[in-house]
Amino acid sequence: MISPDDLPRAEPDDPTLLARLAARLDAKTKPAGSLGRLEDLAARLGAIQGTDAPTLRAPHLMVFAGDHGVAAEGVSAYPREVTWQMVMNLVAGGAAACVLARANGMALSVIDAGVDHDFGVLPGLVDRKIASGTANLAVSAAMTVAQCDAALDAGAQLARDRLRQGCNVIAFGEMGIANTTAASALAARFTALPLADLVGRGSGVDDATLARKEHVVARALALHAGATAARDALAALGGFEIAMIAGAMLAAAQARAVIVVDGFVVTAALLAARAIDPTVTRACVYSHLSGERGHRAVLAHLGATPLLDLGLRLGEGSGAALALPLLRAAVAILADMATFDSAGVASRRCEKGRA
Amino acid sequence: MISPDDLPRAEPDDPTLLARLAARLDAKTKPAGSLGRLEDLAARLGAIQGTDAPTLRAPHLMVFAGDHGVAAEGVSAYPREVTWQMVMNLVAGGAAACVLARANGMALSVIDAGVDHDFGVLPGLVDRKIASGTANLAVSAAMTVAQCDAALDAGAQLARDRLRQGCNVIAFGEMGIANTTAASALAARFTALPLADLVGRGSGVDDATLARKEHVVARALALHAGATAARDALAALGGFEIAMIAGAMLAAAQARAVIVVDGFVVTAALLAARAIDPTVTRACVYSHLSGERGHRAVLAHLGATPLLDLGLRLGEGSGAALALPLLRAAVAILADMATFDSAGVASRRCEKGRA
Fold it and tell me: ipTM for the complex?
């Protein structure tokens, strides 16, 4: 099991490495800084990997699925069976995340973290089911602490397996009817931001459902007011897929792999991971600003600047898959662009002794 | 030569096609609209191509280079010879645009529209040199109308050649020391926006140079106040690479090819093309919001929403190359995502007869 005490902390950024990365970028044939946030991203990738020549190997999107007891409160626009049906769609390759991952040359795996369905033997589905859905977080803890620990551990193991196979970039996605309710509750607990900024329409609920959802989250927060320690809060308010993502993120960060953060639910998982080990965010790249209310506030809380802002609000890792080409581009800039010296290009006017 | 009278106008958007595209997107396994601007992009690509199953074939980045007489006014941070040196770098594959195009599977060609340098025989450089740089637009017309027409025509021919070879997506980039000065002048003429919103730091000029640059543009606008017709304004205030891009855009739009617009200078070329044929914008996809002052105002004037906002201010087509994966993703969503029916996924709660 992951305990904060066993964790080797991620290395802090090395200032001499950051300076080397900045110098490499400034030597490239372009006005200094003119590639904007692509340069910041290149430097971040270098800092994560501890090198001025970062590389991306076998990028992988892990999509974790789970059901949520809180769906019984009527907080989603879709019936609960959509979770397992979408798992089938993800395994079959027809979901948005599959299409976007394929389009961008990214492998994808689908993990049953706790879906309320018996899939039998389903090739392509990784079975790590903790239970058939969480308990209703508005009534009791969503997970026992033992279940939560098991989910964290399973996520960490899956990430380590992936990294051992040569991958050094893991993107995270999720599927789970009602999981934005759990994510809002976790975000409220870990950021202390007001609920009105954190509870949104998820898959598209109407005004009445939105009001009910906010009320459900408020009840859950009151019910679990005593669950303030990171693991206790995650167990009380989270979900199996969320805890597994948090565990996988912690393992990925320890291994200096790049974590590609997706939308609101994955960012809520990151908040939980960060409450366990604050250094996890050093390994993170933020793929996009979701259209789901709550994401903007949570990213701002993290001091994170997302790469894309396309109004996506689908989850599944769709935004993370879309952002991968920007990571590749950032790495390519460092690796492949000519320098002023190598290309024989004059640098600024003053350096040429001109007026 | 391109004359507004010879142009077959691009077809207006077909409302039944737009409805078909919307229905196809809504049938996909995702909450309606949850892929945000990626769905708008998919619909736009379909509308441009006149089909609900758009495809991208042999995407190509055309980088046009030219020198500018107005560089003599000291409006750039870099000496004039950087234009030809960067052309060499583009041809050798070391420039940012080359690296980004390669990273995204996009072919690139480099066109000498009017660089002040004798390249001799340089494999990989397309020679369409109109003259060795324009005249100083603050003193006389940058181009004669005959030169401007020749540039428009050369651009149109190059685009048509490319399309005949099977390409249906052309992205545009440019290189030319001092060309943001010409672009600012064109933007002012074609939008009537205030100069303070349109003149920026280009490759990174200091405050004194910025003030001089704005003064030079104001002088040029006063000098050429009579050049109000589209071609006259382009000739007086533009540049060889800018006019060639405008001509290529007009030809691409006529052929229902997709035009990927890059940053400020390419958008200024689009303003000129649009003044010749207002329907050209129907074929356009806006790749990014540049960090160059002026781009935001000009895009707003066009009612255009750029895909990326990464603070790029390099030109060369760097933003257009970076956005290509989003176009591919949009096409893939339409082509490859399962539908609720095909995947056996339940749609919204009410449609299932649930509470």
Answer: 0.95
